[in-house]
C-alpha cells in the first residue's frame, strides 16, 4: 500500500512512515468538559478538596500525558514536543472545560497528544473529587483547532 496508512503491504497494522514528510510547525488544541454538582465545582474553585489543588494536579497530569501519548495509543509516533499547556475554564454552576494545547516542529501532528492531555486532565479532576461526587460526567472530548502539515488548518465549527 502507498501513502499515509496504518496498514503495511500485507494488510497488517503498522506505524506510518513519516520520514519523507517535511518538518513544519504544528499546533493542536483539544477540549473536554467535566460536569459535576454545583457543590463540587465550588469545592474545587475554593481550594477545599481533600486531596489538594485539583486543577494544579490535573494540569501536571495533562502535560505528562501528552508527553507519553506514544506509550498509550498504538501506532503513535514518539514526538519531541515543544510546548504543552493545559488550562481550565470554570463554568458555573456545574462544569469545567479543559483545554490542552500541544505544539512542535516535526513531521507529524499533535492532535492525539492534545486529546490525551485534555482527557487525562479531566480524568484527574474526576479522581481527585470522586469521593464527594461519583456522578460527574466527562463529555465532549474533541479537537477544536489544528494547524500545520499537509492537511492545513482546522478549526471547530461552532454552528
TrEMBL record:
It comes from the Bacteria. Gene3D superfamilies: Molybdopterin cofactor biosynthesis C (MoaC) domain. GO terms for biological process: Mo-molybdopterin cofactor biosynthetic process. GO terms for molecular function: cyclic pyranopterin monophosphate synthase activity. It catalyses: (8S)-3',8-cyclo-7,8-dihydroguanosine 5'-triphosphate = cyclic pyranopterin phosphate + diphosphate. CDD domains: MoaC_PE. The active site is at residue 127. PANTHER family: CYCLIC PYRANOPTERIN MONOPHOSPHATE SYNTHASE (PTHR22960:SF29), MOLYBDOPTERIN COFACTOR SYNTHESIS PROTEIN A (PTHR22960). Catalyzes the conversion of (8S)-3',8-cyclo-7,8-dihydroguanosine 5'-triphosphate to cyclic pyranopterin monophosphate (cPMP). NCBIfam families: moaC (TIGR00581), PRK09364.1 (NF006870). HAMAP family: MoaC_B (MF_01224_B). Belongs to the MoaC family. This is Cyclic pyranopterin monophosphate synthase.
Amino acid at each position: 500500500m502507498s501513502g499515509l496508512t496504518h496498514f503495511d503491504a500485507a494488510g497488517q497494522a503498522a506505524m506510518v512512515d513519516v520520514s519523507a514528510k517535511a518538518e513544519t510547525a504544528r499546533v493542536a488544541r483539544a477540549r473536554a468538559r467535566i460536569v459535576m454538582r454545583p457543590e463540587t465545582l465550588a469545592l474545587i474553585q475554593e481550594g477545599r478538596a481533600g486531596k489538594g489543588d485539583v486543577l494544579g494536579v490535573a494540569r501536571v497530569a495533562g502535560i505528562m500525558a501528552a508527553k507519553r501519548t506514544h506509550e498509550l495509543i498504538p501506532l503513535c509516533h514518539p514526538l519531541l514536543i515543544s510546548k504543552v499547556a493545559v488550562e481550565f475554564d470554570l463554568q458555573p454552576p456545574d462544569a469545567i472545560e479543559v483545554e490542552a494545547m500541544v505544539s512542535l516542529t516535526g513531521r507529524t501532528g499533535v492532535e492525539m497528544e492534545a486529546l490525551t492531555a485534555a482527557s487525562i486532565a479531566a480524568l484527574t479532576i474526576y479522581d481527585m473529587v470522586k469521593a464527594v461526587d461519583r456522578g460527574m460526567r466527562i463529555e465532549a472530548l474533541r479537537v477544536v483547532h489544528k494547524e500545520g502539515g499537509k492537511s492545513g488548518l482546522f478549526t471547530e465549527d461552532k454552528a
